[in-house]
Structures are given as C-alpha cells and as structure tokens.
C-alpha cells in the first residue's frame, strides 16, 4: 500500500469545517508534501510512516505563527486522525484519496 497521492481533507475546527487538499509523496518510512486550503499552502515537514500510522508537522505563518502536529491512521484509500494546534486544542481530521 502506498500512501503517496492526493487527499481531499476536512478538519473540524472551532471555525467550522476546514477543507484542504493534502498531497503526500512517500519515500520509505518518511514522506513530504503540502496541505493547501483557503488560507494558502503549507509544507509538510518531519513526515513519518509507522505501519499504517502517519505523523507530521506543518508550520503556519498566517493568521499567526504556529506549528501544527498531525497524526492519522490510514485505512485503504482514506485516513482519520487529528491535528494539534498548540494552545487551541486538537481537531479531528479525515481524508479520502482522490488521486
């Protein structure tokens, strides 16, 4: 199973559902990519693959500087997990592979 591809994602935040397009390029037990949404695109850093578990970081600059921590479990062509947004809490995130 390759996790590489494009995923349509929804993150449930206090501001409502945030839609984004997550692009993943796997390389062994690590991955890189981007997460593009209404507020722009953010690079994924420190992406790790452990079995069917993914972990990664995203450094935001807007609306304020913050590092988001993602963790998700892959199940076929979809994943479910969460994004931790520092002092703002942790928000559910789901994604479905579209390409």
Question: Would you summarize the structure shown here?
Answer:
With 99 residues, the protein is mainly β. It has strands at 5-13, 16-27, 30-37, 40-50, 53-60, 66-75, 78-84, 90-97.
Indicate the topology.
Elements lengths: L4 E9 L2 E12 L2 E8 L2 E11 L2 E8 L5 E10 L2 E7 L5 E8 L2
Antiparallel strand pairs: 1-2, 1-8, 2-3, 3-4, 4-5, 5-6, 6-7, 7-8
What does this structure look like?
Helix content is 0%, strand content 74%. With 99 residues, the protein is mainly beta. The chain has one domain (5-97): Lipocalin, CATH 2.40.128. An 8-stranded antiparallel barrel has the order 1-2-3-4-5-6-7-8. The two termini are 14 Å apart. The model has no long low-confidence stretch (mean pLDDT 94).
Name a few traits of the molecule:
0% helix; eight-stranded antiparallel β-barrel; 99 residues; 8 strands; Lipocalin; mainly beta
CATH superfamily: Quinohemoprotein amine dehydrogenase alpha subunit, domain 2
* CATH C-level: Mainly Beta
Proportion of beta-strand residues: over 45%
Number of domains: 1
Give the mean pLDDT.
94
Determine Rg (CA atoms, Å).
12 Å
Question: What is the strand arrangement across the widest sheet?
Answer: 1-2-3-4-5-6-7-8
CATH topology: Lipocalin
The ordered H/E elements are EEEEEEEE
Q: How many extended strands?
A: 8
CATH architecture: Beta Barrel
Largest sheet: 8 strands, antiparallel, barrel
């Amino acid at each position: 199973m390759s996790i590489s591809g494009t995923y349509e994602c929804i993150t449930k935040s206090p501001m409502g559902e945030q839609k984004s397009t997550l692009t993943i390029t796997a390389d062994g037990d690590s991955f890189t990519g981007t997460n593009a949404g209404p507020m722009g695109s953010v690079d994924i850093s420190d992406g790790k693959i452990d079995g069917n578990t993914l972990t990664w970081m995203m450094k935001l600059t807007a609306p304020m500087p913050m590092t988001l921590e993602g963790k998700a479990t892959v199940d076929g062509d979809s994943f479910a997990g969460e994004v931790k947004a520092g002092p703002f809490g942790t928000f559910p995130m789901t994604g479905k592979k579209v390409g």
